[in-house]
Design a protein that fits this description.
612 residues, 7-stranded mixed beta barrel
């Protein structure tokens, strides 16, 4: 069997040889697309954007457009527990253990970096794993999505006048009242402050799980006092509240519960969310009813950064979006992100965690495992609280029905070499064995000495070839002009078939990007020098201040020593005076005693002589 592949080179050049200079805000530079499932298209796009300050830069985007189909659906997934974080590849392994394979994925909720606990709700397999009041995206079993405030509320009815509001699977503070834990959180609460705990188990045969718009009756089976990290029962829940909570009445209520007492846990949500099977919290709404939003609460809203977002189009299809803050891509502000999601056709769109958390993964057809699609701003993928994936049921691949040539897209000049790889996939895009009788052929493609050669004439444009194997693209023995300089080709001054002589200018290269880079480096160097000078002056001032403090301290010490010596001298003088006074007193006392004795002797003699 012979298979023929059609390759259309994208207008993004891998080595930036034919890149178009940035001209205006939100101006397309180029893109390449690939079907990774029947209803899912992956697009890598480069946009020219202009910042609010007028600075022009590139923007690298990864976009997955999903239309509902039977084989692929969106899900939310996290690691083994809510507490802690997980890398995307490890989370994918968890999905594979559940019988799924990844088609594509992006990062999800904002989260507490110290605990990994996500802000907002988390739902997987129709089970509420964590509560919260943030905006969210929810997915239904048919692959459709809803974006907005799910208004999920968890309450505890203990028979009092008003049920207690409960925070589900969140870290304990003195400010957040009553908490409820399941082992989705972890095996222990891992809190840092002491609290009062009540162990409860579902009545009857009900499982220890919460679902939207449902109630669950539980029974008190134990209490644990004055504990920070309390064990969470595998077959039940743990009610908890901080000892120093500001909600003293709620604390008193939990402390009044007795063994065997029946309680009711109720979960309510906004209309339209009842049948959500997967969900995760997000941030600001970017697009609402087709209109761009402008009122944002995120502290980094005005900063150009890596971003992640998800949107729903008018036809119900979904847009999974990331943009990079790495290399020559500087990211977007939240306002620019909103405009971009609107431009991609979103009726509603939600901002997800961005910056170093931004992640995009894809399984290229013909490959058995996924790959990172974006360039992380931290230099490597960050572990996150959860992810949103497009998945299909994992199964053994069938017979190859599609062939793919990698890398897809790109430009080259004569004498440049590109290593080509052929992969095969079955009708479900699962990796399949490449047929043994695949051959290579196409315009200007020949076989020579066991390698494949493609001749390309120097020109600016899109290359379209028919290729059906692997090989190395290189120049044949023709008089083509080549250059090792890797700059943008600005103009081509000759036509095919023109005669040229020595000294003729065949083409000009655009070095503006290089000049801009040099200028940026010079500006960075100047800024670095200024910063270094400031740091030096600051250090010098600190040294001078320290020396003055030392001198002042020495002077103070010298003055204190002088005062000490003076006080010591005064003490010694006073001590000597006291000693002299004591001697004088002793002498006076002795003289007085002598006189008293003499007087007594005279009195005794007088009495003896018959005196009266």
């Amino acid at each position: 069997m012979k298979n023929k592949l059609k390759r259309i080179a994208a207008s993004v050049l891998t080595l930036a040889l034919l890149a178009v200079p940035v001209l205006a805000a939100a101006e397309p530079v180029g893109s390449r697309s690939l079907n990774v499932a029947d209803g899912t298209v992956y697009t890598y796009s480069t946009q020219a954007v202009t910042s609010d300050s007028g600075k022009q830069t590139n923007l690298h985007e990864n976009i997955f457009t999903y239309k509902k189909e039977a084989q692929v659906r969106p899900v939310v997934a996290f690691g083994s527990t809510l507490y802690g974080t997980s890398a995307m590849n490890k989370t994918v392994k968890t999905l594979e253990e559940q019988g799924y394979s990844m088609v594509a994925g992006i990062n999800g909720s904002f989260f507490d970096r110290s605990t990994g606990i996500p802000y907002g709700i988390v739902i997987t397999n129709s089970i509420l794993r964590s509560g919260g009041s943030a905006n969210a995206v929810g997915f239904l079993a048919d692959g459709s999505a809803v974006i907005g405030d799910p208004e999920v509320t968890v309450t505890l009815d203990y028979g009092g006048d008003t049920p207690l509001l409960v925070n589900y699977n969140k870290a304990m503070t003195t400010q957040n009242g009553v908490l409820l834990y399941s082992q989705d959180y972890d095996t222990r609460t891992k809190n840092t402050i002491e609290g009062y705990h009540v162990i409860v188990r579902p009545s009857g045969s009900r499982a220890a799980e919460l679902r939207l718009s449902q109630t669950l009756t539980v029974e008190v089976v134990g209490m644990v006092e004055d504990t920070k990290s309390c064990a969470i029962p595998e077959d039940g829940f743990l009610l908890a509240i901080a000892n120093d909570t500001i909600y003293k009445n709620a604390l008193a209520t939990l402390q009044s519960l007795v063994m065997g007492e029946q309680l009711t846990i109720q979960v309510t949500c906004a209309s339209g969310w009842e049948n959500v099977t997967s969900a995760c919290g997000g941030g600001d709404i970017l697009v609402e009813n087709g209109s761009v939003c402008t009122d944002f609460t995120l502290d980094s809203a005005k900063k150009m950064a890596a971003r992640t977002a998800i949107g729903v189009k008018n036809d119900g299809s979904l847009v999974f979006y990331t943009c990079d803050e790495a290399g020559n891509s500087e990211g977007l502000t939240l306002a620019q992100l909103a405009e971009r999601m609107q431009a991609l056709g979103c009726r509603t769109a939600l901002n997800l965690d961005g910056g170093g958390s931004t992640a995009a993964g894809v399984t290229y057809p013909g490959y058995a495992s996924g790959a990172t699609a974006n360039v992380p701003s931290d230099g490597k993928l960050r572990e996150c609280a959860n992810f949103i994936f497009l998945v299909r049921q994992k199964k053994d691949a069938g017979t190859a029905s599609k062939l793919y040539l990698y890398p897809f897209g790109g430009y080259t000049l004569p004498d440049a070499k590109i290593a080509l790889t052929v992969k095969a996939a079955d009708s479900s895009y699962m990796a399949a064995a490449v047929p043994t009788d695949v051959t290579l052929g196409g315009t200007n493609v020949t076989a020579a000495g066991g390698s494949y050669v493609r001749t390309v004439t120097l020109q600016k444009g899109t290359l379209e070839d028919s290729i059906s194997a692997t090989g190395t693209v290189q120049s044949s023995d023709v008089s083509n002009v080549t250059t090792d300089l890797k700059y943008t080709v600005k103009t081509v001054n000759v036509q095919v078939g023109d005669s040229v002589e020595e000294g003729d200018v065949i083409c000009t290269l655009d070095t503006s990007e290089l000049e801009e880079s040099i200028q940026k480096l010079q500006e960075s160097l100047a800024d670095a020098k200024d910063e270094a000078q400031k740091q030096y002056e600051k250090a010098q001032a600190s040294l001078t201040e320290a020396e003055e403090n030392v001198k002042s301290t020495y002077d103070d010490m010298k003055e204190a020593e002088d005062e000490r010596d003076s006080a010591k001298s005064a003490y010694e003088t006073a001590a000597a005076a006291v000693k002299s006074y004591e001697a004088e007193v002793d002498a006076a006392n002795a003289d007085l005693l002598t006189k008293l004795n003499a007087r007594q002797a005279a009195l005794d003699a007088y009495t003896a002589a018959g005196g009266t």
